[in-house]
Amino acid sequence: MDISSFILLLFLSQIPYPCSSVTYDYLLKGSFLSVEKPSDVLVSANGDFCAGFFSVGENAFSFAIWFTKSSNPTVVWMANRDQPVNGKASRLSLLEDGNLILSDAGRVTIWTTSTASASSLQLQLLNTGNLVLRTSDGVFIWQSFDSPTDTLLPQQLLTEDASLISSRSRSNYSSGYYKLYFDNDNVLRLLYNGPNISSVYWPDPWLRSWEAGRTTYNVSKTAVLNVTGHFSSSDDLKFKAADFGMGVTRRLTLDLDGNIRLYSLDEVLKNWVVTWQAIMKPCRVNGVCGPNSLCSYDHVLGRTCSCIQGYKIQNPNDWSTGCESEFNISCNSSQFRFVMLANVEFYGYDKNYKQNSTLQECEEECLKMCGDCKGFQYKFDPDPSVYSCYPKTLLLDGYYSPDFDGDVYLKLPKADISSDDKSDKEVMLDCHGEVLQLLSRTYKKTQENRSLKILVWFASALGCVELTCFFLVWCFLFWGRKNPDKAVHGYILAAAGFKKFSYAELKKATRGFSEEIGRGGGGVVYKGVLSDHRVAAIKRLNEAAQGEAEFMGEVSFIGRLNHMNLIEMWGYCTEGKHRLLVYEYLERGSLADNLSSAALNWEKRFEIALGTAKGLAYLHEECLEWILHCDIKPQNILLDSNFRPKVADFGLSKLLNRGGSDNMTSRIRGTRGYMAPEWVYNLPITSKVDVYSYGIVVLEMVTGKSQTNLLTVDGGGVIGQGGLITWVRDKVKEGATRKVSRIEEIVDPMMAGKFDMAKMEVVIRAALQCVEEDKDARPTMRQVVEMLLRRDWEDEHSMTL
Ligand SMILES: *[C@@H]1O[C@H](CO)[C@@H](O)[C@H](O)[C@H]1NC(C)=O
Ligand SMILES: *[C@@H]1O[C@H](CO)[C@@H](O)[C@H](O)[C@H]1NC(C)=O
Ligand SMILES: *[C@@H]1O[C@H](CO)[C@@H](O)[C@H](O)[C@H]1NC(C)=O
Ligand SMILES: *[C@@H]1O[C@H](CO)[C@@H](O)[C@H](O)[C@H]1NC(C)=O
Ligand SMILES: *[C@@H]1O[C@H](CO)[C@@H](O)[C@H](O)[C@H]1NC(C)=O
Ligand SMILES: *[C@@H]1O[C@H](CO)[C@@H](O)[C@H](O)[C@H]1NC(C)=O
Ligand SMILES: *[C@@H]1O[C@H](CO)[C@@H](O)[C@H](O)[C@H]1NC(C)=O
Predict the structure, then answer these.
(1) In the annotation, is 137 catalytic?
(2) Which residue CA neighbors atom 5 of ligand 1 most closely?
(3) Cβ–ligand 3 contact at 124 (below 6 Å)
(4) Which end of the chain is more exposed for a tag (fewer CB within 10 A), N or C?
């Protein structure tokens, strides 16, 4: 469960909302449900759902359907989410003419089904959560399933006319800015529909529909989640719950944070568990932090927003309005300079695009553009291997990610940045940190202005729709012109063809599992050649304890992780008791195989340390489910032909030892010498265990000495106080007290003194911090990446070795 839904539950738990004593199975013509009687609710025959007045604020109610089996009621539908009614005299009435109306304070109709029927009718809540108006011959003349709010229940059709719209905030159920809908080209998309700007962010807007696995040809525009947890849409989008199968209660919800998630109910804990989600990187959702701000994500804090330098927050209670500049942009170029934000991307709104541009050319271009250029993106285009320049008119949807290979240069007045300490200027706030405001609906005697108000409201709603259309068309044209080719923008495409293999196929590929290339991590690895001639590393897992469905859920999750410093998974096999994983094969083998190679010079060692840190930072911070590696060692860091590192065997800790709720602590995992003290002392296991192991690996790379060997030589000291760490730390201390550098004595003689002293100091310092006994003293992997990326090593003399 992510943090936001956890907080959501916390919040909801403050409103006691039982589905009170069963009073109605159905409602007949001429009768009504009153807001004043909490017992006036319709209950489904199975008792899972209730329909009635739901409190959405002080003296404010919406007619809603909610799910009762979760520890807190989960609202799945609302009739009047945007216009709550008064807590006095409001009712839902089924009129004699067949119309169902919701009236506020007894007078004004807030909502109606606009139905008419001369025959007898009943309003009934079905076991599926569908509220229906049913005639005596069983025909539904109206059903709530036709007008979803933010949730789709199993068997409910999502259609062109029935899209999902997120709630405004945790405390406000009214229509928010995110929308899941079928677009004009028949593709199901996610749209950020903010007050001033609309943009589509899923599927990735720079992909053509077919590249995103969608088709535009089927005009039926329908999608459905079936009872076994399979979602299928007419645009060919298909996915399934990690726990797919019968007998699980599920819902698909467009959450506040702009992500769609499929949830399953944990029948024991009575909470919702995410079993699928559309967006893996929470900061890629548009409109999160508003203009001129940066989104960053971390599994502890969740998503956070901060203003960029030179800008200040507009409304501290609502990040969607973003930040405003503290200066005026003029055309006098001598008054401006540029400030780099490393690993930051601002998406879109490129006023221009210049391939193969130097930094200086790009700065000049931006200065020439005066107020039209707020800064520029400067990034490497792998094809054709040049740097490119993207001046930005707007700084929107900015995010920081250690694995993004590009920087942003902000245009700022020279005067403003003389004080270089910008960190204290940044405001860090939770993106959803809006204050809880209670809606008040006081009973008013004079209601005559009401209908006028509704009319005005309706007119402005129409106006918004028009504005949205305008913006959409504009974005479309803009994009169409500026991005003739997605390769120009050079973004990562999702790996194609993650596949399920049959056991026979893999047996053939490995020629009967004949060529063993590695062991450990729960299985034996064989080299094989797939039918399409790709060379693969095929891992056969020892334990088959995990059920097939669970295994497939985990594997497809791991298979979707794409990062240049993570080994790519091509597929898997699960057949009977066989569980196999198919990975790309790297000719050069592991870091362990190469540590004593003369080819491993200082530059390569540094790149390996940096790449490994980026891969782990991605695992720890970019993924919702927060994968711990738990077995970092040189054997698990593979090298490609250019000595670029790729972390292997991640996610295995999840695949192998599932089953108990205490799965993380029940068994010590990892490899002697690389294991953090937490394992030994039975302390909680967090991502810091990987940080520790990483630190050991870096120390080994720098010194050329093996931690495991030293341990054995020393007679096996307690892990954590092990030989290598003590040895390096002592040298550093000695250097500091005598004010002489001991670095030469630490560094691997293989490098023959050829290394960058300033960088080396940074690397050793980072590694020593990683292996601190106290997990809280260790940095996160992201902080390690930042330390290694600091470009001002030359100025650093704080550590004397
Ligand atoms: C749900 O959909 C999947 C895939 O389309 C299908 O295999 C399965 O049989 C369906 N389940 C039911 C109960 O219809
Ligand atoms: C279009 O999609 C619907 C719903 O998924 C499906 O039943 C139908 O067969 C599709 N039509 C074509 C021509 O593929
Ligand atoms: C929308 O634009 C108006 C006028 O430019 C501005 O005042 C307002 O703050 C903007 N709203 C947001 C949320 O950016
Ligand atoms: C920006 O320009 C406006 C109008 O010209 C002026 O009132 C304001 O003080 C200027 N702001 C700064 C920070 O110079
Ligand atoms: C540009 O700014 C500089 C420094 O503030 C000033 O000396 C110069 O006169 C300005 N030039 C113009 C054309 O305004
Ligand atoms: C990039 O520009 C430089 C200098 O203008 C030129 O020498 C080089 O060939 C260009 N590279 C490409 C790939 O166009
Ligand atoms: C909920 O959001 C809507 C739309 O932004 C706003 O008009 C309304 O006042 C909000 N309600 C509360 C209780 O904040």
Answers:
(1) no
(2) 230
(3) no
(4) N
